[in-house]
Every structure is written in C-alpha cells, then in structure tokens.
Amino acid sequence: MPSTAQPAPTAITSDDYAARMARVVNDALDVGLAGVIVTPGPDLVWLTGYRPPITERLTMLVFSPDQEPTLLVPLLERRDAEEAEGAALVSIVDWMDGTDPYEAARPLLRPDGQFGISDSAWAMHMIGLEQTLPHSSYRALSECLPMLRAVKDVSELARLEAAGAAADAVYDEIVRVRFAGRRETDVAADLAGLLRYHGHEQVDFTVVGSGPNGANPHHEAGDRLIEPGDTVVLDFGGLMFGYGSDTTRTVSVGEARPEVREVHEIVRRAQQAAVDAVRPGVACQDIDRVARKVITEAGYGDHFIHRTGHGIGVTTHEPPYIVEGEGQLLVPGMCFSIEPGIYLAGRFGVRIEDIVTVTGTGVQRLNNTSRALRIVE
Q1: In the chain, which stretches have pLDDT less than 50?
Q2: Is omega for the bond preceding 320 within 30 degrees of 0, making it cis?
Q3: Could you tell me the pTM of the whole model?
C-alpha cells in the first residue's frame, strides 16, 4: 500500500513566532508576572523553533515587558541558537564553562520579581536562580499560563490534521497483520514502522495491551504471546511535522465474547457522547462528566480510572486537560483527546481515543477510522 505521507504544511514564519512571543508577554502581564522564563522543552520549541540539548548547562529564554526577549545560552551552543527559526527575534547572550551562569542570568531578571517558568525547568536551575536572586519567586507555567499553547493557529491545526490522518492510515494497515501467535512487541514494532512509513519523524509510544494486559492503561508492550480470543488495546502516536498524533482502538483476535462486545459498546457510546458535547463555552470538566456518566450508569464507573482527555500539540500531552476540576472553558482552536476506557483487572480492557478540535460551532474529529470493534486474525 502506498504511503499517505503528505507534503509539509505551510512553514511557521517569523510573524508566527513574533505573535507567540507577544502573547507570552501580554499573558504574563495579565496575571501579574514580572516575566516568563522558558527552558529547553516544548515551550522553547513553540516560541523559537530552537531544540537545544537538555543538559545541566543553563539555557533560558526570558520575556519581560521592559526588555526585548533574551536567550541565555552556553557559549559552545551559541551558533546553534543563532540558526534557530525564531532566533532573529531575540537577543542572544552567552556564558562560558567555568563561569557562573546564574550571574549571567541576573541582569535579565527583576531582583524581586515573580516569574512564570517552564514545567520542564531543572530543579538545580531553579535553586541557582533563587540563590542568586533571593527575593525572586517562581510559578510553573502550567499553573499560571495553562492555556499558553492550547489554542492552535491555522498552521498548527494543519499539522495536527496531517498527523491524525497518518495515524488513521496506520490503524487501517495494522488490523490486516496477524496478531495470534505473535508477541506484543512484534505488533508494537509493526506500529512503529508504520508510523514512520506514513510520515512521523518521531514515535512516542506503541501500547499493545493483550488480554489481561489491556486492563493496564499504560501497559508497555511485552513478550506475552497474543492468543485467539484476546482483546487487544492499541494506543500509538508520535510527532509529524513537529506536532502530535495519539489514537486508540480496541480489537478482538477472532470472535469477541459477549461481555467484550458489551463493554466495548459502552465505551463507544461514552466516547461519542463526549465528542458530541464539545463546543465553545463548555467547561473541560463537563466533557469528562459526560463520558463518565455513560460508563457509570452502565455499572462500570469504578473501572474508568483516568481522565477523559489531554491536550496535544508540540507534545502529545499538554493542556487543556479534560478532567474533573478543570473549569477552563473550551474555545475554538483547542485540540485534545477524548479517550474513555473500562479496565477489568486480570481480564481485559477497552479504550477508544480520537483527537478533536473545537470549531466555531462545535467539534471536528482529527481521527476518522471506525470505532466499531474490529475482528483481527
């Protein structure tokens, strides 16, 4: 079968990066921060396109309302930083091995300021900043600016749609391979190969939970031989054009038992009800409640043991989170998973997952393969 890999969507431009940087400063002012500190990880990639090595050497991008964005880097990594897509929009300052990087950071930060800092910041760097600036304080970006990357622009949506279509193509092929008599790791390797074949540059996970292993939502594919009659949870995804895919389907190796069909239908109805509830102005937690209500009323509430969904973008897990207690209202451009499940310990599990995006009037699925229980060999 020919690959469905697509040409790259329109490039992310300097104007896109500039708009993102401006949003950071404005959002920081709105919540009373003196500035924002971005360390290596998804926030830095989203803002500049720069992917430095994540090591003990301090790298940080600083935003504050009274100075231009400034990227502090180790001297030996300066050239790479200067070649990043958004580098022209920031001032680059370096520090050399053998000197104190926190002293180099001191002029970039208000001594008594409260700063938002990337969740991926190392504790040693936080401690170093606090020791150098003892009157400063820090808040996790996921707490103070949780929606920073949550609303996707047109270019981001195009990437997520392409990644979703590629994941659909992978599912359409994986259900044609033989399952019975093979190890979970064999099927996982097939999934990884198909993700790359259909355009993914990075494979993040290939969950293959057969039989009782399917009752563990994050089961690592192992050496268990898949047997006729097994229910198998397939959860796979990664990055394509820098943006994530994540989809789950549950299949049966040979004819499914009546109990499996019953549980699968409950999960399918819960997932459909939650998708149907997505529209602007609805709270994230209300989507979780809709899915949970279907499963609880069917008598399996205690077996739905995780949130209903998570955001997706330059990482496969990010805000918004579709979970009880999250009052954030949905707005157009948000993208997240809807993935209810039922897990019967020692027996089997069922999960169905699609990525969706909030539109101006409702919802669009980014995964479109059948959600019916598929019979495989």
Answers
A1: 1-3
A2: yes
A3: 0.91
